[in-house]
Amino acid sequence: MKRNISPIIQPSELLALDPKNYILIDASAGSKPRYDESHLADALYVDLNTDLANIGDFAIGGRHPLPSPEQFGILLGNLGIDENSHIIIYDDKNGSNAAARFWWMLRAIGHEKVQVLNGGFQAAVKGEFPVDNLMLKAESKKPYPIKNWQLPIVAIDEIEVASKTGNQTIIDVRDANRYAGLTEPIDLIAGHIPGAINFPFTKSLDENGFFFNPKVLKKVLEMELENLNLEDTIVHCGSGVTACHLLLAMDYAGLAMPKLYVGSWSEWSRNNKEMVLAKSILIALHT
Hints:
Blueprint: E1 8-9, H1 11-16, E2 23-26, H2 32-37, E3 39-40, E4 44-45, H3 69-78, E5 87-90, H4 99-108, E6 114-117, H5 120-126, E7 131-132, H6 156-165, E8 169-172, H7 176-179, E9 197-198, H8 214-224, E10 233-236, H9 243-252, E11 259-260, H10 264-268, E12 274-277, E13 281-284
Parallel strand pairs: 1-6, 2-4, 2-5, 5-6, 8-9, 8-10, 10-11
Antiparallel strand pairs: 3-7, 12-13
Helix pairs in contact: 4-9
């Protein structure tokens, strides 16, 4: 998908734009109370659990399975978003929360004019972007016409084949301790998919929590993930949210975006699949 706009926008660039020319979205997962108290002026709120996912049985699609294209189209229409909208998204964890997920979803339906705010909420506030606690109501439009997801998504069966054969590289973007099975704050079992390599999403960020500039970011990614055919690479995390942070970073660096395994560890670990647990003990769990 050709890129005509940078996927990342800097706080100073946002401040210079006329608010009439873009739709600002707060996608800070689990931070609705903070949004109600204080958010960037004119920002609308989207909820990860109810807007950007269609949650059901975690064993089928993980903790944050994608909504149907029809459901997503209705959401976009309710937000006043159409094919011509310029959408700017932020969260309070520099895209690792849900901003990158919303960005990926929009790109996956072919929407080009969408950006994530570098540094997120905190950077905008520090840059003196106005904040308020007003509950802005979107001017609803008809549902956004969506036929299907246009970016590559893989299901659990394809992951299992890749895990056993190595025909595709699997990247796990969770932090090193979760990958190693030393800790698991959310899912039932700690560990990782056999054959997956670990590239924590934070490696795309500098010491201040901002994305590296594209040239530096490309060098970092190519050095860490050398000799990878990105079109035969699959990215996952805990539930298909933070994985989008790496996809965003790759797009920002001008690299091809790999496939996304939405179900991620939350689905894999609930389906009696082979796992690598702490101390590198490979077992098959049966529940």
